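This follows on from our talk about sequence and fold. Can you supply me with one protein entry, sequence and fold together? Could you add the entry underneath, on a fresh line?
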Amino acid sequence: MKFDTPAGQNPIDQLKVIGKPTDRIDGKFKTTGTAPYAYERHDVAANQAYGVVVGSAIAKGRIRSIDLADAKAAPGVLAIVTAESAGKLGKGDFNTARLLGGPDIEHYHQAVALVVAESFEQARSAAALVRVDYARASDGRFDLAAALKTAPLKGDDEKSPPIARVGDFDAAFASAEVKLDARYKTPDHSHAMMEPHASIAAWDGDRLTLWTSNQMIAWGKGEVAKTLGIPKEKVRLDSPYIGGGFGGKLFVRADAILAALGAKAAGRPVKVALARPMMFNNTTHRPATMQRIRIGTTKAGKITAIAHESGSGDLPGGGPETAVSQTKLLYAGENRMTAMRLAVLDLPEGNAMRAPGEAPGLMALEIAMDEMAEKLGIDPIDFRALNDTQVDPAKPERKFSQRQLVECLRQGADRFGWKARNPKPAMVRDGQWLVGMGVAVGFRNNLLMKSAARVRLDASGIITVETDMTDIGTGTYTILAQTAAEMMGVDLDQVKVVLGDSDHPASAGSGGQWGANNSTAGVYAACVKLREAVAQKLGFNSTDIVFSDGKVRSGNRSAKLGDAAKGGEIVAEDHIEYGDLDKKFQQSTFAGHFVEVGVDAYTGEVRVRRMLAVCAAGRILNPKAARSQVIGAMTMGVGAALMEELAVDHRFGFFVNHDLAGYEVPVHADIPHQEVIFLNEVDPISSPMKAKGVGELGLCGVGAAVANAVYNATGVRVRQYPITLDKHLERLPQIT
C-alpha cells in the first residue's frame, strides 16, 4: 500500500479498540518472569555452551601477541576465538568500529577474544587467563575540548552543507536590539538499559540462528551476514522480548558476532552476554557536546537572528551528534545559521541514544530561550509563543502538518499553576528549600519508514499478526493487536501477535520514535488485503462490507468472520510505503515540559518536586502505554539534568564509571508525581493511523526544564550538565 494522499475516513476511526487505555499484552509475562529474554532462552537449542568476552585493556594501539596457553588448559574450555582464528571479517554499515579487534585496537574494551566453556564460571575464569601484550599508541585523542580546536565542519550527512544559512545571520545579530551569546556543555551518556547485550547462536550446517536482543531485526540480519561474509538468507534473528534498548540495540554488537563465531569454533550452540562493566565501553554511547547559541531579538521579543553551533567527537568514520537539528525548525526568525564540528576521538563509539540530536540540543537551546526571555522581561511561555511558526522557517511554503506547540504550553501553564511562579529568582522558600519552576519545549520529528506485516485468519476467527517488529518495552505487542482487532472487527483476545523473527515480513523496527506509527500502518495495510480476501471468500460486496463483533456484514447478509476460513487459513501480506507527503509537509511532534524543584539552601541538593508534560503527537493509539513511554522519558530527562555523566579518563581513553554503581541514574526516590496530558490531535498527513510517536518526545526538553527550574529557585545559571551541587553551591543565595 502506498500512502501518498492524506488519510480519509477509515476503519481505524471507529476507535472501538484503538485509542483505549489498554493493558499491555506482554505485561503479565514480564511481571511474572516468564517473558523469554535472549540469554534465558535455554530451550531453543540443546547443549548450550557459555562465552565470555575479553575486552581490550588499551584505547588505541596494537596487539603484539596473545598467549592463550593457560586459558586453553583451563577446565571446561571448548574454544577460544580471536581475530586471528576468526579469519577475515567484514564490518557492518552501522558499525564505526570493528566488533572483534586485533591486531589494531580502536577503543577501550573493544572485544579481542571470546572464551567458550561448558559453564559460565569456567569461561569467566579462563578469560582471566588470556594474556595480551599491547603496544599502546602515544597519540590517542580523548579530550573533546582540545580536539574541537582543530576539528572540521561537518554536515548532517554527506549531502548536507557543513553550515546551513537562511538570510544573513551575522548582519542581523550585529544589529539586534537585544542579544544573547552563551555556551553550553552536555556530557557523554550511556543507555544503561536493564537487559545487557546478549545472544545465543546455533549453526545448522551453513545456516545461522541468533536468538538475540536487537531493536532492528532486518538491519541486524544484513549486518550479521555482511560481518560474517555469508548470504543474508542463511541468517535468522529472533528477538521477541527486549529488556530496553534506548538506541543501544539498534545495531548488532559484539555479543551476536562473537556468539556466532564461538558456536562455529566449538561446534555447538553458544550464549554470550556482555558483563555490565563492559557494556559502557564496548558498545555505543551518546557523545558529549559543546554548544554555542546566539539569539538576537527586537525589544518586543521577536527573534531576528538565531544561530546554533555544536561540536562533538567520534571514532574515525563516525558522525556528529546532530544537536542543532531542532533549531532549524522550532522557532521563527528570518536570519538563521546552524553548524557542527566533528572531532576525531579514540573513545568508544558514539551513536544513537534516545532522541539523538534533539535531546542534547534542546538541553542547550531551551536554556538559551529562558535566558533570552529574562533579558527581555517577557514570560518564558509568552516569549516562545511570540516566536512560534506554522511553517518551516527555511522553506516557508512547507507547512507543518500539525503544530499545537502553543496549545501545549498554554494548557500546561494552566494545569501546572504557572501564574503562581515568581519570575524573580530565589524568592520562594519552603523551609530550607529554595523552590522554583521551569518550562521548556519538547520537539521531535515524525519519521516515516516502510513497514510490512502478514496477517492470518483461521476458521475459529483468530487473527495472527506476524512481523519482525520488536517490542523494547514500548507496548508494540498491544498496539499491533489493537490495530488488527479494529480492522477485523474482533475483540483483542482474538488476536495473536508474533514479533521479532526475521523470517517474518520486515517492519520499520523500534527506534527514532518511528516504531508505533509505521508498524501499525503496516498491519493496517495487511488487514486491508485480508478484508478484501474475506469479502471475496464470502461472496460479499467489498464496497459496503462491515467487520464488527466477530462478524462480517454486507447489505442484509451476515456471516461469522471465521466462516471465510472454513476451507483453509486465509493469509494476507502487505507493507506501507510513503509518497512525498513528508516533503510537502513538515511532520513533527511537540510538548510543553513543566518542572518544579526544591534546592536545599544549605547543601545545594536538588530535588524534583513535580513534573508535567503536555504532548501533541497525533492520534494516541494506547494512552496507557503512551503515558508509560512519556513518564519513562521524563525520568531519563531528570537523570540527564542532575546526575548522568560518563567520566572520561583523558590519559588512557576510557569511561571510568562503567557500571551502575558509578554511572548514576534516577531511582524511585528521585522521581515525584508525574502527569501527562495528550492533546486531542489526529494527523492525516502522517499515515492511515493518523498517529506519530511519543517515546522520544517525552525526553526532549526535560533537562532544560529542570535547569530552568533550578535557576528560578536559586538565581544560579548552570550551563554545564549535569547540574551537580558543586556547580552552584558556592553561588547559592546567602542564608539569612
